[in-house]
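Listing S7. Sequence submitted for prediction.
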Amino acid sequence: MPTTVPASTPSDGYFRLWWVTTIADVTAPKVATEILAASSLDLTCYLKEPWGASTAVETVEDWRACLRTVLASPGTSKTDLQDLIVTHKVQVPADVANKAYAALAPGTQGYLVARYGIDVDTAPAAAQIVDVFPVTVATRDKLPIERNSQLKAKVTVMLRDVAQYDKAAAA
């Protein structure tokens, strides 16, 4: 029997990330009134580096005198969110290039809503699968200048509630 290689989705151009200020139900964020609200911001084109989340799980060991093996079960988990590396133009606060930097001020609470696997130019819609991260902005730092580059800022966000994975957006 020949080997079947399943199709994959490219990551470039198939990811969107929104900063959403208010979500009533994190298990079903509303597209029209939350993700696309006037107070929300599509961060995708402000990002200067890839972004993602990863979860680590502690191990609870269960040693028994009668066994020659140590049993294990999942313990506490911790989700780490990568820093957001964004454009900034602080000398012109109203400039569109400064919107992400301005919106993500330290102490601000909101939600990062990530959508994977749909072309970036496709508008968000009900039933699309998203991940929702309730966060607090911890720090916002201008990064050192680099030759042949643009000005960038690093925004550190911390999870303030349980992340919600693979949730269908609501109308």
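Caption to Listing S7: primary sequence and predicted structure tokens for the chain studied. The radius of gyration is 20 Å. The CA atoms of residues 55 and 79 lie 4 Å apart.
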